[in-house]
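S1.2 Input.
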Amino acid sequence: MVFFNILLAPRSLYIQDDSFIILQAVKSMMAQKPLVLNINPALLVWARTSIGISVSRAAGQLKVSSKQLRDWEAGKDKLSIVNLERMAGIYKRPLAAFFLPEPPAEPPIPMDFRCSSGAVNDSRKGRGKKNGSS
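S1.3 Output.
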């Protein structure tokens, strides 16, 4: 119970007695072993595809190999908190979104009814012929 109270104590209490030494030991143990997360791989795929970037581009921005990213997305390899934080920033998603049990249902992207530049030029040519001008 003493160990639990040391971690929750205010910073000013760490220098009393041996608690500061214990805290330093805990920090060094945590620094040696990276925290590995158990994230649903479907969430990783959803986050990447929902913003429309490819595996190779996402891997380049994450500074990992495409194979490593595919392994994370397939669930073959576990993801560290550092890589998950980078992924959240690149995919423009809150970190909490990766802890959902499954990807959220998103409404479909609305249909775009704007014309391309080629269609605008064609309509202008058509109007010009109707009015008798070239």
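S1.4 Remarks. Residues 1-6, 9-16, 120-130 have pLDDT under 50 and may be disordered.
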